[in-house]
Amino acid sequence: MHTQQALTGEQDLTSRLAEAFVGVSSQLRRNSALRLAPLGLTYAQARLLRTIAGALRPPRMSELAAGLGIVPRSATTAVEALETAGFVVRVPDPDDRRSVLVALTPDAERAVTRIQSARCDAADEVFAALDATERATLLALLDRVETGR
Length: 149
Prior knowledge:
Elements: H1 9-36, H2 43-54, H3 61-68, H4 72-84, E1 88-93, E2 96-104, H5 106-126, H6 132-147
Antiparallel strand pairs: 1-2
Helix pairs in contact: 1-5, 2-5, 3-4
């Protein structure tokens, strides 16, 4: 027999907050995926391209995996797909013969601009109910949650 304990007011609030956060995250991801589809990119591929574009230099495969929180084999598979699509090239690392760097192609550099635009459009739709001040407040609160301060 399954029994469910009643939640305290604080637990209920925390539970509702967690559900709302997951719901908004899912909405953002869905909206982004819809806007990325015409570019021929998945959400994960777009995230990988943004990560490479945001690096100070072409990253190593191991750095990509660590930065994305994925196993190296998954990073390799994702990079292979983007390489096949003409968005990245793998080049030898001049500082370490055992490593390769992942660099964007000119096509990818143009795509990153469109990816950013698609991402902003998706977020604008999700956060449409909030004015600029409310968005800034939400961002500040999420930053505090993320950093633990």
